[in-house]
Amino acid sequence: MALAKTGCHVRAICPPSHLLAKVGVVGRPHTYRWMAPLASFAEAIAATRPDLIIPCDDLATQHLHRLHQRARRRPDPDASICALIERSLGGPEYFPLVYARTRCLEIAREEGVRVPETSVIPDLGDLRKWTDRVGFPTVLKANATSGGEGVRIVRTFAEAELALRNLQAPPSLAKAAKWALIDREMALVSPALLRQGSVVNAQKFVEGREATTLVACWKGEVLAALHFEVLRTTCVAGPACVLRLIDNAEMVMASRKMVRRLNLSGLHGFDFMLASNSEGAYLIEINPRATQVAHITLGPGRDLPAALRAILAGESVRVAPELTEKDTIALFPGEWTRNPESGFLRSGYHDVPWECPDLVRACVIRRLNKKTIFPWRAKAQALVGPSQASSVVPEKPPRIV
Q1: Segments forming the whole domain that contains residue 123
Q2: CA distance 248 to 227
Q3: Which of 18, 173, 252, 275 is the most exposed place for a label (fewest CB within 10 A)?
């Protein structure tokens, strides 16, 4: 929606019944077939001939990397699709780092970026050596996971041992089926069927506050950026749902150094910990995709959709009006789902897409259907919006005020 407001023509590829079908500016989305993901992507690209591809989750990024690799290995390499993916994501030499947390932070350290000590943990013996040397608490992270799904903060060796076994194990068929049938997420289906486990990394625990950066970049240069301190997450180690806009020189410099070193293009996120003892910003993770703040336009240098459109069109940046003058932003539907009585829904800017009532209605109904016990009216009354909110009332409760 934010890209469309800049004048871009936007199309999408997603699973059937995805919420993107509720967003009118993308038209009828191209169908993502989980049994043939690369073919799905190739067909969508051929049909739309885009100037830029923006992956919005890690699985989409992985598919683009594989599509690029397949195109290069063909007897008659498809130079056009390789060029498109490189223009959208950056230099292909960076692609393997997406799946290697430890190596990625090693490169950051080489660039003078502050990072916590991180190491690959193949087995229990290595885990014992790590914890004896580094101590507790410590953080275990599985490669190729996101949204906190592959992160465990452990405080004893027994917890660490259990976490290592669980993170290394392939997803269960039951969990994959639940994700596919109920959550409409297909990311676990292939690993569950093929019994693919994960590489696990240990990271030294940094006491402090979470922070995040999202940049729009082009051929190794940052075009625009958003820097936030995370005030609330949906769950422990989960995605942010309340953020506060900040200016942090170390976060700015770290993101610029990594964009330049990895020759990145498109949208990329960087997660940090702001240490309690020194306010130093430790880079802990890179997200090779758009994150949930990409659409938030906050003025010159903070309008990522406008920056991308300008570089593609070869024009000067036409910055959109600021979404809000408030520095605290409550993301929808995350914070409303986490705590319907949250004060941030009123004191901050509640990021509800009121201009797309079908999307709001679908988000509300989908979230409510996941709850086995639900106090309809109490929760409904917590969703605060403009006077025209009555236009997005679902056909059945809850009533949105």
Answers
A1: 117-204
A2: 7
A3: 173
